[in-house]
Amino acid sequence: MTRGRFARAGALVVVVVAALAVSTGCAPASGSPSTGGALRLPPQGAGFDYQLGGPYPPPDGVDIVVRDRTAPPAGAGYDVCYVNGFQTQPEDSAAVARDRPELLVAGVDGPLVDAGWPDEYLFDTSSEASRSQLVDLVGEQIRGCAADGYAAVEIDNLDSYTRSDGALTWGDNRSLAEAYVRIAHDAGLAIAQKNTAEHADELAAAGFDFAVAESCAAFAECDDYTAVYPAVLDVEYVDETSQDDFLAACGDADPRVSMIRRDLQLVAPPASGHVFEACAS
Known about the structure:
Layout: E1 47-51, E2 62-68, E3 78-84, H1 93-99, E4 106-107, E5 110-111, E6 113-114, E7 117-121, H2 128-147, E8 152-156, H3 170-186, E9 190-194, H4 200-205, E10 210-214, H5 222-226, E11 232-237, H6 243-252, E12 257-262, E13 276-278
């Protein structure tokens, strides 16, 4: 579940920017079954920032930056493109409901919304026909990330089935996720599992290359990812992890984990409430 993306505003917090641990190399990728080529993965434990609330110059020491697909790559070293693969983006919801209602799960009063993010509608992954149409729609976005110069893509809301009132199953979402893996690899992109730690084994076996996690330290899930992936990008949030707990998590972190602490809104500086803290090297 996406816990922090554009959530309620956090309290004004003094920004603490610590030195980041930077790895000098990338772990080898196994390569895509469809291309047979090696994919470039994030360097293990490297400096990381999560900029979904808007792009800004990466802090000193940051080599890995995640941005929305509508923003240009940061060019700091390794760029990851955010794509909402299982729900509509807020700015797209009305248009999809109007023009492509067959792609959405039907609720009692219209498209079924994510209760935590009521401006997002759930994509209908329940049939091969609807999944095929979603592959066309989201696949274009994934290929757009490659054309823009990103090295990888993260696919959000893999767990939308848990919010579907029984309309969707994990098998439905897994089938679509596997199609996204093929598209990303064919485009030369590595692909990140987003959250859903309970399915890490299965998704790694399906071809996902690394993980983007939210609050894996706070929820004791980081080991689920490091057991199967060579690199994990983890965002802890101010409402769930105190600064002391964050520093303790940094000390306990696996070397494969790049961990930061951010404000819930993920706002860009100099906006009030922006928080970026990183593990000291």
